[in-house]
């Protein structure tokens, strides 16, 4: 049996199954504890592989999470585009609300969005960064036509600014809104720290709506 | 001499001098290589102290960098408030430009702003987080009156949204704009990756100007 398993794992199909098992374990652990708390050893233990064997499938911990971020873009972009396309009254407020709702419905994606430029893109090969950036480019290619169909005043550059603002803010506000339990208790206990309390979806929606309202005014002035 | 030095270091004055030397070394190394590349051992070596001795002054590497972030707020907030106060024609564009210019003039502060919610606030005591948040609250107390005097339509909440958007975007865009040298070369070499190239100051200024224009329109409608 061990011999047969080993041979199977050398086929492209078996290799993919192993990769999927590793990604599943990383996804589950990341959702449970937050990305920064998950080590390569944790993932190897969860998937029942030796760490050295796992390195045949992924070079680093960061490569695993960068793959999950790419998966997040492929999941988020069509959902957002569909919601924007289905808006009965597309305007700055409803488009902004669609961005905020689809992002905050994906907390692990928000966590990954913040980790990407700081950590994930810095500990993988250049080839993996290229693959990842092609995926985010594909995501833009899905989102921008939907946004520009809904709000025809906007240019391509406006759409790029909107997606950059939405993903950057979603990542950072998510991190600010999910401190450790002790710090969360501190924020609630000290009224001088009220400014540290963040409610991601309404704040993200407000900021993006104002940005869109202003940008539309600039284009139609 | 060693005895005398040791005794001096026990006075509050000597303790402060040691702390300043540690912060100076961390500031210099952080500016040179980026915050994520600086370890506690690097700082100890640069300041010529044993790591164990340094832990008498700062609990963790993150506490050192959180102190530098607080220092960054105390430096940035009055500079921004002064520039906003001195604007000949305060409007959405000029106030946004003042935010973008003062933030991008401080690259290490931008680096620290991105590191803060992800890393720095998660490996220090609750008391240090409280101190830090009181400093950011003081910063808001300097910035908001200047912004509201320049743009009287804005509410306190609008000012909080503006500072949240500005600091979150400055941190993330800075990280995106400063990849490692190999990845930077990749972005320039592959035209399909043009969307990965970011020029922080104009993009930040454009996004904040649209946001301010939209928010002012909402308040004066």
UniProtKB/TrEMBL annotation, chains A, B:
PANTHER family: HTH-TYPE TRANSCRIPTIONAL REGULATOR RUTR, POSSIBLE TRANSCRIPTIONAL REGULATORY PROTEIN. The keyword DNA-binding applies. This is Transcriptional regulator, TetR family. Coiled coil: none annotated. Keywords: DNA-binding. Residues 16-76 form the HTH tetR-type domain. GO terms for molecular function: DNA-binding transcription factor activity; transcription cis-regulatory region binding. SUPFAM superfamilies: Homeodomain-like. Residues 39-58 bind DNA. It holds the Pfam family TetR_C_34.
